[in-house]
Amino acid sequence: MTKKTQAKSENNTLLLGFPGGGLVGIFTISYLIPQLKMTQIGEIDHPDIPPTLFVENGELYGPIRIYKKDNLYAILSDVPFDLDLGYSFAESVIEFAKKNHIKKIIIPSGMESTNKDPKTPKVYGLVTHQNLDSLLYQNDIPKFLSGTIIGTDAAMVATFRKSNIPVALLYAECHPFFPDPEAALHAITVIAKILKFKIDTTDIKNRIEYLRIQNRKLMEETLNALQMQPEGKQVPVPHIYR
Asked: All domains of the chain, ordered by start, with CATH?
């Protein structure tokens, strides 16, 4: 892991986004980072991810990046994880969180729902530690009461549960097999309320169809990675999301 700065605060919060159902996590965090004027402070190097660098506007970027503004941190991965990578990536996140005195982690993700209203998808909350239940109640987030978590999300949640850093998972109803920036829009609104920030969502509203088309390839690679991979098979590295 490489990073440039450390800070200690009683209110440090970490936002975590990675490709998953509907790409809700990556849409949400990648939109919040510039809206909140966060600055990249480092990257996470994972030994099981093929060495990859992206170039944009003449600048080099790694696939897993760390951002910060004041006492708010964000980790954004452009790489989809299989089960094994999910466990080890979660351990890397916990290591970072402990070093930077993170008090809570917020993870937006997508969940399939047969009752989804395309005009008003809901966001449900789930916490790994009871001391975050109040975060859901105070922000009018209905609790995810019953169901099953599988795949990479389950691997990460299982790892986070064993740590002493509480995690709030925000599951937006989405289409799990296609990019769903509209579901991410609702996750963005919920996180903005939690953080007490005013976020302008005009840009993502205007680009919903574009984002759906632009990210079909990443969605396909994410679905492939979410399946159990044969031993020794590498996880494909997608194009960077911008």
From this structure: 2-226 (3.40.50.10900)
